[in-house]
Amino acid sequence: MTDAVQVVWFKRDLRVSDHAPLLAAARAHTPVLPLYIVEPEYWRQPFASRRHWHVIHDCLTDLNAALTELGQPLIIKIGEALDVFKTLHAHQRN
Question: For residues 46 and 37, what is the distance between their CA atoms, to the nearest angstrom?
C-alpha cells in the first residue's frame, strides 16, 4: 500500500495564495496532488461559453505555473468528478 496523498481539488478558487485547502494539505506533510477536473456536463450547460473557457484556461495556466514553482504541477483530468476520484482512489490503492 502506498502513502496517503492529499488531493486538493481546484474547482472554483483557481489560485494558490490564501487557499485554505492547499495550506491544510501542505501542513499534513504528505504528498499533495493539485487537481482540476474538466467536467463535460458542466460545459454543456447554457451558461458555459467559449469566452468562459478562455478565462478558465488562463487561470489554469497561471495556477499551474504557481504550483510548479511550489514543486508539484497541476494535474488536469477530463471526466465526471466522481469517476475521476474513483480512478485516483483505485490507483492509490495499487
Answer: 19
